[in-house]
Amino acid sequence: MSSELYVDGIGEITITNSIVRIDMMSLSATEKDGKNNPKPVFRQRIIMPIDAFANGVELMQQALNGLVEAGAVHRFSDVQKVPRLVPTNGVAGS
Question: Which domain of life is it from (predicted)?
Answer without folding.
Answer: Bacteria
